[in-house]
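User: Could you go from structure to sequence for me? I need the amino acid at each position, not a summary. Structure tokens:
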């Protein structure tokens, strides 16, 4: 945990959203602040559908992953997306700092629901989403966790599964 109460989540090498070794990816780091999972990002030229506008599929992917982490923290399982609905409010500009935010609406071990949104530094909202997520098994979650990158300051979301 950092001094300002922000806790980072682990990331991976190849992931399109948080993969630090994916040159085509977004390369964000997920963090937890005031109970929300957040992902600050800046779209690059190769993320654009047209000039200086982040492609809607990229926007959806960022929201999807952010909401998935909110659920994972709540139920201590990695999840896959069962359903994703995105409402695009205005074009997400590239080369400008944006933040995806998410929170859990309903969580259980069968299917969980989260909401997410993307805002700029002034708080203007660009997109919002709702997703339903299906958890992986304990074994599947630990297999994913074994391939995540931990540097020492990340929240250990799944350690409780290793203790069972």
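Assistant: Here is the amino acid at each position, in order:
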């Amino acid at each position: 945990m950092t001094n300002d109460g922000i806790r980072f989540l682990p990331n991976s090498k190849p992931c399109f959203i948080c993969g630090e070794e994916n040159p085509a990816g977004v390369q964000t780091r997920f963090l937890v602040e005031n109970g929300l999972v957040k992902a600050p990002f800046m779209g690059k030229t190769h993320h654009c559908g047209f000039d200086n506008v982040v492609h809607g599929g990229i926007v959806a992917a960022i929201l999807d992953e952010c909401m998935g982490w909110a659920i994972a923290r709540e139920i201590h399982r990695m999840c896959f997306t069962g359903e994703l609905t995105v409402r695009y409010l205005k074009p997400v500009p590239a080369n400008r700092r944006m933040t995806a935010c998410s929170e859990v609406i309903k969580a259980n071990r069968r299917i969980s629901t989260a909401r997410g949104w993307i805002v700029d530094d002034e708080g203007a909202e660009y997109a919002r989403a709702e997703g339903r997520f299906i958890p992986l098994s304990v074994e599947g979650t630990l297999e994913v966790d074994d391939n995540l990158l931990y540097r020492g300051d990340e929240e250990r979301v799944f350690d409780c599964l290793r203790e069972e």
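One structural detail worth keeping in mind: Helices lie at 56-75, 138-145, 159-163.
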